[in-house]
Amino acid sequence: MQSLDHNIRFFNTLTRKKEKFIPIEQGKVKMYTCGLTVWDYGHIGNFRTFMFEDLLRRWLEFRGFEVTQIMNITDVDDRTVAASRKTGILLKDCTKPYIDAFFEDLVTLNIEKAEHYPRATAHVPEMVALIEKLMQKGYAYVSEDKSIYYDISKFTDYGKLSKFKIEDLQAGARVKVDDYEKAEARDFALWKAWAPEDGDVYWETPIGKGRPGWHIECSAMSIKYLGETFDIHTGGVDNMFPHHENEIAQSEAATGKKFVNYWLHSEHLLVEGKRMGKRFGNYYTVRDLTKLGHAPEAIRYLLLSTHYRQQFNFTFDGLQAAKNAIERLRNFAYRLKDANSAGNSPELKALMDRVKKEFGDAMDDDLNINAALAWLFEFVREANNLLDANKVSKAAAEELYSLMMKFDKLLGVIGEVGEEQKLPKEAEELIRKREEARKAKNWKAADEIRQQLRAMGIIIEDTPQGLKWRSEKN
Ligand code: AMP
Ligand code: ZN
Q: At what angle do helices 214-226 and 124-136 cross, to 10 degrees?
């Protein structure tokens, strides 16, 4: 149960303001996140958005909320149909490897599981029912080619999310493709009547032979799993228009109710200042990076450690910095396992209280992870100083350790740090040689041995209590 006086505030794209988060049902959160379009592997730009959604979910849980998250899989839209036609592989066979890879990548990046992952192709009857409702209510019409369009002039709130005035739009003009620019805002396709380029991708339904438009998919699936009004809807900024604008128009016209209370959008991951995307050819997949030997935790940390409303550039230096940051956190956790001083510092309690408060305040403030991490590293630095000065008892170290594990429930990068391990024989020998080199002040040789150990996956650290080591995996 969350404390009733929580102070979580989110920047709501709908109002362009930070607002206190008040869920519809006390203690519960219903959120919908637009998932991957499975015409290809997801790239780490996509995963930046999924990571933000993971952080959001984990923070709400941290504060005691029970979260129901729905993440759809877009397995029929213009891009998936084009991929299927190009390869000559049936749509469901064409998307399957990417769906499988997506779930594998979610596990690799330690992203918490959503409650449901509905697939668009499994919800066509719900989409048809919603379109029929829009037709009955006069919001939709059939065009000459038997496609069905949404009449944006009928929905006076059209443009309220992406902020433009309906009077500026071209009345009666239409757009059939799923994705288009704001300047081309016009009546959009709810249902696309079969055309030869769709090949074998079609459904025979009461509204004709064809396939759904991309936007109606998310309206139908979110309403089915979360109800007509729910708390949070997320996605990357590119989803704001037309996708989310159209979801609002469809859902609110059909139900007569407010669709979503809080809209949260994450900014893009860039490469040399340009949005990472398949169409720009400037992307890496999760598997590209792990194949190059980069640890999944480092990718995870990199993607989550910049505030979600800030753009940032992907670089390999950034990935290395993420790795170093995790190493600092793990080293600290390791040291806590060993701490056993007789005395205890009176400063410890204040230090812990401060980090709990500051970290929490930062995260409550629209998930300000940059500030939260700065507080965490300051805490680690000061606690390390107390460890250096032999001022941390075993009991206090255990408390510090469980606090670190609590923070890691959010970050998901440290993991439980193992108990004493046995050092392989060759490593023992190398460490002995390194000690000799250090005694002889041969720093170069000592450093080379450190690198050799590192290549074996063993990390060593010189502390005031002597040399400490651990295996990289733990
Ligand atoms: P898509 O597979 O295109 O439907 O995208 C899946 C999610 O990734 C959506 O929420 C997009 O907004 C998001 N996305 C796409 N490109 C990027 C990027 N470069 N940075 C962050 N999020 C992105
Ligand atoms: Zn969607």
A: 100
Say which DSSP state 212 is in: E
pTM above 0.85, yes or no: yes
Q: Report the 10 Å Cβ neighbour count for 277.
A: 17
Residue nearest to atom 5 of ligand 1 (CA): 36
Q: How far is the CA of 320 from the centre of ligand 1 (A)?
A: 24
> Distance of alpha carbon 227 from its chain centroid, rounded?
23
**Tens of pLDDT, residues 382-398:** 999 999 999 999 999 99
Between the CA of 411 and the centroid of ligand 1 the distance, in Å, is 21
Whole-angstrom Cα distance, residue 178 to residue 201? 16
Q: In angstroms, what is the span from residue 227 Cα to ligand 2's centroid? A: 16
Identify the residue whose tokens are 């940390």.
Answer: 301
Partners of 18 in the β-ladder: 11
Residue 276 alpha carbon, nearest atom of ligand 1: 19
- Type of residue at 215: H
User: Rounded distance, CA 11 to CA 92, Å?
Assistant: 38
What's the rounded Cα separation, in Å, for the pair 376 and 433? 36
The atom of ligand 1 lying closest to the CA of 237 is 12
